[in-house]
Amino acid sequence: MAELRVASAPLLEAKGLVRNFGGLAAVRDVSLSLRPGTLHAVIGPNGAGKSTLVNLLSGHLVPTSGKILFEGRDVAGEPPWRMTQLGIGRSFQRTNLLTSLTVLENVRLAAQAVSAVSGLRMLRPASREKQLIVAAFEALERVGLAGAAHRQSGLLSHGEQRQLEIAMTLATRPRVLLLDEPLAGMGPEESERFTHLLKDLAHEHAVLLIEHDMDFVFAVADWMTVMVDGTVLAEGHPADVRANPEVQRAYLGGHA
Fold first, then answer.
1. Are strands 73-74 and 206-210 parallel, antiparallel or unpaired?
2. Which of 118, 143, 173 is at the close of a domain?
3. Could you tell me if 165 and 178 lie in one domain?
4. Over 90: is that where the pLDDT of 191 sits?
5. 72-130 residue pLDDT tens
6. CB 90 within 8 A of CB 166
7. 81 and 116 housed in the same domain
């Protein structure tokens, strides 16, 4: 279990979130708080509503009802580009790269998407925007890919592509990171490197993590929310969640 860091005021909050798809309630009355310096894991079986929750928090879906508060202001219904500008970055279950471009070009484009340049400056080649290059290299350095900056992104290993996607998210200067199954498809060595990276990032961001690898989750999480059938079954410190009989029956196989 990760050591719990000093509590701080929530940066991003969900209050009573509901999302219906026709007659199906994918998310039902879900509330949680993401705090700076804390890694908050959301676990649950397939179909529990975890990815729908991330899509709501990142602006890719509009809530049927409920609130999403960023620094106390309701931002529910804001489009994804606005959420990114506010400082809410996310990764996806599947890598979302331009594989014909270099590693650096992918990250630079991500930085460019949220840069405050004017329309006239946006007409210039992005390579001339020094601040974008600096932001891109800083993000690559952070995830350990600076040495691969000029490689074609499609030639990276799967684990390196996942690292690149994190670098693209970091290039947008987020304060909140929403990570949807970042370990999917990684081997043991790649997972170990990513574990160290995630622990490091959690010191400086509010992190929401969705992941099915329970060993990984319990190794890195400071706080956990368990979802079943679109609702919150339990939440708390990892040790308390692991010992919860309802959680054991519903998700952890009936044993701690």
1. unpaired
2. 173
3. no
4. no
5. 999 999 999 999 999 999 987 666 788 899 999 999 988 887 765 434 445 555 455 78
6. no
7. no
> 83 and 2, same structural domain?
yes
Q: Which residues contact 21 (CB under 8 A, 6 or more apart)?
A: none
Same domain for 83 and 13 = yes
Give the integer Cα–Cα distance in Å for 58 and 53.
Answer: 9
Neighbours of 190 (CB within 10 A): 17
68 with 115, same domain: the answer is no
Number of structural domains, the chain? 2
- Can you tell me the distance from the alpha carbon of 100 to that of 193, in angstroms, rounded to the nearest whole number? 25
Give the single-character DSSP code of 102. Answer: B
| Cα–Cα distance, 132 to 140 (Å, whole number) | 12
Residues 106 and 222 grouped into a single domain: no
Q: Residue 4 above 60 pLDDT? A: no
What range does the domain containing 64 cover? 1-87+174-256
Q: Could you give the percent of the chain with pLDDT greater than 70?
A: 88
In whole angstroms, give the CA distance from residue 162 to residue 233: 30
Asked which of 111, 145, 173 is the last residue of a domain, the reply is 173
pLDDT (0 to 100) of residue 190: 77
Residue 61's pLDDT is 96
Here the tokens at position 240 are: 């308390």
pLDDT band (50, 70, 90) for residue 23: confident
Q: Which two tokens stand for residue 32?
A: 């949680």
